[in-house]
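Here is the promised in-class demo. Please do not try to memorize the tokens; focus on the logic of going from shape to residues.
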């Protein structure tokens, strides 16, 4: 690492997640990015967003990623470590930079996003980087479809990691998290479909399901994806909530209504964190799927009310109060 701080690995963790984290620059005012004079900085990345969400809910998480040996890389590992995430196995590469991206808020609709991640340290990930110690003392691996799109060998690396995790007895979740700007539709569809059989829990959105399989009913999506291998499929339905398919069961969960929507980026990661926080204890809870979907919908609803990809994720006590229908005492 480029900084002098050394982080000690955790002997055991609930979840390992692998992916790229970037520095996020957001204008302090709405309007065209070209004329924004001041920016705030944070970090972002689907997998690190999930890691933070889970640690705030009391789970132990190990984040694996490749960063440049630069100040932006320092910022990312320090921020994640400050949130309680194990970053001891993050790799620093002096030959390639840490990626950055910008958001543009124009006062209507979702923000525009501009990535500067081509040639980043994370894009150089390959199967040779996958190490057994990544999975030591872990119960579960979470990956997304973003990492396979980053570089020439990143899909092979994710495939290798999923196989290694399953060989070691870990369960695996896979969120396709489709990013059309990163690769061609043909590459995306082929690669994502190849990875589905390697997971136990598949988390597509409705648009992603249609992208992968064409137009079908929600029940048909659930059946088709489960026939590919995953034991459980959770279909995110946006404003209509979510539906989960596991065994012979199909469970629907209503959405959580919010007074305002500020930024939808990161909502799917918050959803995944909420779902996984319950999924990890499913063997001890017959009604785990209902509870998982309700928790996931609540987490996603909280995320859209904040600027930033992870800042609005709740603590365990905050989430429990919300699920119980309570409100925080503010004064």
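The designed amino acids, position by position:
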């Amino acid at each position: 690492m480029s900084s002098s701080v050394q982080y000690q690995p955790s002997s055991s963790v609930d979840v390992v997640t692998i992916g790229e984290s970037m520095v996020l620059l957001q204008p302090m005012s709405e309007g065209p990015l070209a004329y924004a004079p001041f920016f705030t900085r944070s970090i972002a990345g689907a997998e690190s967003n999930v890691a933070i969400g889970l640690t705030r809910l009391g789970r132990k998480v190990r984040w694996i990623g490749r960063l440049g040996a630069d100040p932006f890389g320092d910022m990312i590992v320090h921020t994640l470590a400050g949130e309680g995430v194990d970053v001891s196995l993050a790799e620093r590469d002096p030959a390639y930079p840490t990626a950055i991206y910008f958001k543009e808020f124009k006062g209507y609709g979702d923000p525009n996003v501009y990535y500067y991640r081509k040639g980043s340290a994370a894009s150089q990930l390959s199967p040779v980087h996958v190490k057994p110690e990544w999975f030591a003392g872990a119960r579960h691996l979470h990956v997304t479809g973003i990492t396979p799109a980053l570089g020439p060998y990143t899909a092979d690396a994710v495939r290798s990691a999923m196989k290694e995790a399953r060989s070691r007895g870990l369960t695996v979740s896979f969120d396709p998290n489709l990013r059309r700007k990163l690769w061609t539709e043909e590459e995306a569809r082929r690669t994502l479909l190849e990875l589905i059989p390697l997971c136990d829990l598949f988390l597509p959105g409705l648009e992603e399901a249609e992208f992968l399989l064409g137009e079908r009913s929600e029940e048909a999506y659930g059946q088709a994806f489960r026939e590919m291998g995953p034991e459980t499929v959770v279909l995110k339905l946006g404003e209509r909530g979510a539906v989960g398919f596991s065994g012979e069961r199909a469970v629907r969960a209503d959405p959580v209504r919010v007074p305002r929507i500020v930024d939808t980026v990161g909502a799917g990661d918050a959803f995944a964190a909420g779902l996984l926080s319950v999924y990890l204890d499913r063997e001890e809870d017959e009604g785990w799927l209902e509870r998982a979907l309700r928790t996931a919908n609540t987490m996603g609803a909280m995320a859209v009310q904040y600027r930033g990809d992870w800042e609005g994720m709740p603590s365990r006590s905050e989430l429990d109060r919300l699920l119980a229908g309570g409100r925080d005492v503010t004064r």
